[in-house]
Structure formats: structure tokens, C-alpha cells
Amino acid sequence: MTAPLVSILIPCFNGARFIGETLESALAQTWPHLELIVVDDGSEDGSVRVIERFKSRNVELIRQRNSGQTVALNVCLAHAKGDFIQYLDSDDLISPTKIELQVARLVQAPKAVATAEWGRFKKFYPEAKFVKDRSWTDLDPLDWLHANMQRDGGMMFPAMWLIPSEIARRVGPWNESLTLNNDAEYFTRVVLSSERVLFCQGAQAYYRSGNLESLSALKTSKAWASQFKVIELCQEYILSVEPSQRMSVSFAYAWQRLAHSSYPYDPGLANLALERADQLYPVRAPVSGGPKFQAVAKIIGWRAARKIQVWAGRK
């Protein structure tokens, strides 16, 4: 039996600072049966020159005019020939045995998807902190989605996952109308299309924080509108399958977290998000912030406190 081929798919836009390190982590995999496809989305910073240095190591480079990350991801997927799909953002990293450990589990359960331990880092990946949560175990899809949402709204970034290509084809393309948090919408569909989510202990994914050029750093009306649409779609997908109190409570919290983070950047959207929360369940999510913020918020309210926080340079 031929060993499965894994397609590592990397969209890149102005990623020259980090794409080399990302490609090194992909090429360092102990699983030898790989193809690497990078779609450069019209970069203007020298990303292409960095990627071309890896072409002799069987990295395929596809160039396109700037069309957005989700378009680049769909181009990657259209060119993939692998039995499994590993998406990877151009500034994130994966541990050397990550794919091998996940393949070992998925070949025994081809209708499942695999996830991994994950940690945040800013400059050097060894500083990443891996904090276990309730989703770090084998779970049925709806139980995994609920458990994942309990940790500050959840984490579903691409590097965590390994997906059988059959499931990826069934799920369909990335939603090209989305920018901020597009991965949550896509991987919610992936999880719901699987029979099981398998947690692979020892497989590690590293999420780079503090990259001001990443989509997650955007503070624009378009970005907040995308986040709003993502929550709306994920709520529709999940509540159509399980219209339960636990899911309603989780999405009420998600709407409130969006309101807290988008205010004062987009106050109209923040107010609409609070209305969506009230329609679901009568719970109140705490507004995140340090002791000084909490003390000020008690006196003048969280909206005024957020304005002061943003004015002072805190996001």
C-alpha cells in the first residue's frame, strides 16, 4: 500500500519576514511523503525571492494578483494532490513530528479529522506556552466545538489541523467574502463534516502573535464585519444541528466578546452584536482587561473605559 501523500498548503501575502522559517518547519517534517504548495497573493515585500530559494527542495510556487487570503487558499486546494491536507499560515510553524503523528491516527479513522496541541509565541517558537483545555481529547464533532468555544471563544487556526482530502472536497471552498476569522467558519464546516475529532498528543502547532501585518491584527470596519458574519454563519451551522442551551449560551458569549473588541472601532456593529446576544440567552460575558481597566469600567461603564483604553494605545 502506498504511503499517503500530505499536501501542505501555504497562502502568502507580504510574508517575507517569516515565510522562510515557516517553510523550514514544513520541510523538517519526519513524514517524508509531502508536497508543498505556496500561493503568493501579490506580495510587494520580497516574499517571492524568499520562496524561490526553496524551489530546489520541491516547493511549488504559484503567483497571483492580490485577491485575498481565502482566494489564495482555494487556489492552493485546487492544486493539491495529497490524501491529506495541512493548511499553514505563512508566519506559523509546526513541530517536526506533527504530521506523522496525525497521519498515524487518521489512517485508522479516515472519516475523522485530527487536531494538535497549540501554543502562542511572539519571536521564538520555544517560548510558546501550551495550555491544555477541554478540547484536547478525542471528541464527537459537536462536543469538540462546544469545548473549544469555552477558551476565550475558541482557537481553530490552520496549523492545528490535518484533514483527509475527501472531507476537504466535501466541505467545499473557503468563503471568499470573509477576511478576519475566516478559519473559524471553514473549520467549523470541516468538524461538522467529520465523524470524530482526534487529538494527537505530541503533535504541536505554533501560533505567532504580535504580527501586525496578519489578518488577525486588523481593526477595520471590513474586518469586524467579517468577524460578525463568521459568528452568524457558525451559529447557523451549529444550531441547525444542535439547538441546545449550551450552544446558545456559547454564542451569546461570542457575540458579546465581539461587541467588546469592536467597540469603539465600529459602535454600530458592537450594538448589533449585543442585540444578537440578547436574542440567544440572558448571560453576561465579562469585558476583558486588567485591574485598572476593570476599576474604571465599574465607575464609567465598559464603553467609556474601552474608549480610554484605545486612546491610550491598548487594543
Task: Break the fold down into its secondary structure elements and pairings.
Layout: E1 6-12, H1 19-27, E2 34-41, H2 47-52, E3 59-64, H3 69-79, E4 84-87, E5 93-94, H4 98-106, E6 113-121, E7 129-130, H5 141-149, E8 163-164, H6 165-171, H7 182-192, E9 197-208, H8 221-241, H9 245-262, H10 267-280, H11 291-300, H12 302-311
Parallel strand pairs: 1-2, 1-4, 2-3, 6-9
Antiparallel strand pairs: 4-8, 5-9, 6-7
Describe the overall structure.
It is a single chain. Helix 2 links the parallel strand 2 and strand 3. Strands 3-2-1-4-8 form a 5-stranded mixed beta sheet, sandwiched between helices. It has a 4-stranded mixed beta sheet with strand order 5-9-6-7. It is globular, with a radius of gyration of 20 Å. The protein starts with 5 loop residues before the first strand and ends with a helix. It has 315 residues and is of the alpha/beta class. It has 2 domains: 211 residues, Spore Coat Polysaccharide Biosynthesis Protein SpsA, Chain A (Alpha-Beta Complex); 89 residues, no CATH class. It has 12 helices and 9 strands.
Descriptive keywords:
17% strand; globular; 315 residues; single chain; alpha/beta; 2 domains; Spore Coat Polysaccharide Biosynthesis Protein SpsA, Chain A
